[in-house]
């Protein structure tokens, strides 16, 4: 029996204010009263709150740890908390459960999905594997547990190149699900035997080449921090090659690498950021004197933003929604993640 089942619901005076809407849970705003109540419930649950970099600022600020999905999952595995509250999307909470099978993992809103993870199912991957029986499957960690279980080795956005480069050059590779990260890997490794799945994150795919070029031309001295999931990534390389943008300004970075690089930027400089808007909160905290500007001001993930103050309070008070992964699936998925960690830079989840 899990710690959650033993505890049951906890009375909370704010719980009655929570209402369910098609967009998620509402009725409560971030306030000192909310923060005190979250702290109390967290203590009673013996819980730890993890928040992804794309979460609402108030969720990031109340979390015990903020970061990318894989780093947070590692923290979940190391903590002595009984309950992991993962403020992110569903595949991230699944990964935490895979790496922490004996802990209770909760997600504040079970409807917080992911268009990228949903772009390939386990059934589709199995059919692809059957068509290429001698190929090695490399899957981005932004996938479901069932897909990870059919994967030979997982990768992150920062170590995808190292993972693919570690595989025998004569071996065919099936890379899924992100086509833009796959294109980045092919470009960096020069391999011609990597097949990519036509999946994408709808938010990153929506950051267009035109927006990138306009922003870069309008800010000729600005650095460009571009996530390799972005639809504009290939365009950035092309523009740099054509001389429209200086090559030195273009940086393909995971979310974790963006934070590291932000601390090295001179104060007063402008940095154009191509990723989900929630990342700007962490970047501003890491380098408050740098002017971080989004390439696309509408690059917001509605799934991430379902984790509201109301959803977090409901989750802690009610003990919902619990994330489970069948033991056989978890064992296979854990093996593919473990293989990734032994190769190159551990990196991050996005």
From TrEMBL:
Subcellular location: Cytoplasm
GO MF entries: 4 iron, 4 sulfur cluster binding; metal ion binding; quinolinate synthetase A activity
Cofactor, how bound (note): Binds 1 [4Fe-4S] cluster per subunit.
Entry keywords, A to Z: 4Fe-4S, Cytoplasm, Iron, Iron-sulfur, Metal-binding, Pyridine nucleotide biosynthesis, Transferase
The EC number(s) this enzyme carries: 2.5.1.72
Catalytic activities: iminosuccinate + dihydroxyacetone phosphate = quinolinate + phosphate + 2 H2O + H(+)
GO CC annotations on file: cytosol
Pfam families reported in the protein's UniProt record: NadA
Amino-acid positions noted as binding [4Fe-4S] cluster in the UniProt annotation, renumbered to this chain: 114, 201, 301
Membrane-spanning parts: none
InterPro entries: NadA, NadA_sf, Quinolinate_synth_type2
Enzyme class of the recorded protein, top EC level: transferase
Similarity comment: Belongs to the quinolinate synthase family. Type 2 subfamily.
Full protein name: Quinolinate synthase
Gene this chain is encoded by: nadA
């Amino acid at each position: 029996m899990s710690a959650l089942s033993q505890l049951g619901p906890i009375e909370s005076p704010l719980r009655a204010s929570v209402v369910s809407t098609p967009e998620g849970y509402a009725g409560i705003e971030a306030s000192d009263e909310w923060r005190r109540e979250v702290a109390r419930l967290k203590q009673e649950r013996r819980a730890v709150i993890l928040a992804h970099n794309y979460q609402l600022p108030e969720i990031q600020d109340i979390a015990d740890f903020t970061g990318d999905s894989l780093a947070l999952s590692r923290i979940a595995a190391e903590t002595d908390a009984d309950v992991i509250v993962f403020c992110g999307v569903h595949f991230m909470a699944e990964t935490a459960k895979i790496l922490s099978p004996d802990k209770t993992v909760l997600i504040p809103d079970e409807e917080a999905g992911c268009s990228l993870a949903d772009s390939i199912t386990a059934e589709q991957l199995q059919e692809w594997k059957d068509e290429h029986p001698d190929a090695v499957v490399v899957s981005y960690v932004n996938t479901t547990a069932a897909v990870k279980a059919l994967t030979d080795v997982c990768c992150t956005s920062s170590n995808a190149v190292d993972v693919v480069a570690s595989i025998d050059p004569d071996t065919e590779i099936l890379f899924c699900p992100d086509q833009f990260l796959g294109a980045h890997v092919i470009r960096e490794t020069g391999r011609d035997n990597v097949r990519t799945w036509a999946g994408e994150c709808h938010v990153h795919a929506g950051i267009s080449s035109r927006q990138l070029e306009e922003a870069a031309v309008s800010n000729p001295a600005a650095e460009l921090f571009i996530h390799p999931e972005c639809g504009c990534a290939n365009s950035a390389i092309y523009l740099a090659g054509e001389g429209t943008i200086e090559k030195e300004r273009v940086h393909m970075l995971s979310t974790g690498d963006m934070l590291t690089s932000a601390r090295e930027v001179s104060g007063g400089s402008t940095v154009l950021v191509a990723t989900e808007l929630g990342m700007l909160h962490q970047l501003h905290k890491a380098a408050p004197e740098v002017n971080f500007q989004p390439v696309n001001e509408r690059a917001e993930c509605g799934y991430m933003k379902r984790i509201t103050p109301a959803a977090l309070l409901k989750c802690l008070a009610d003990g919902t929604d619990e994330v489970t992964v069948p033991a056989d699936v978890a064992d296979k998925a854990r093996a593919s993640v473990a293989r990734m960690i032994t190769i190159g830079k551990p990196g991050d989840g996005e």
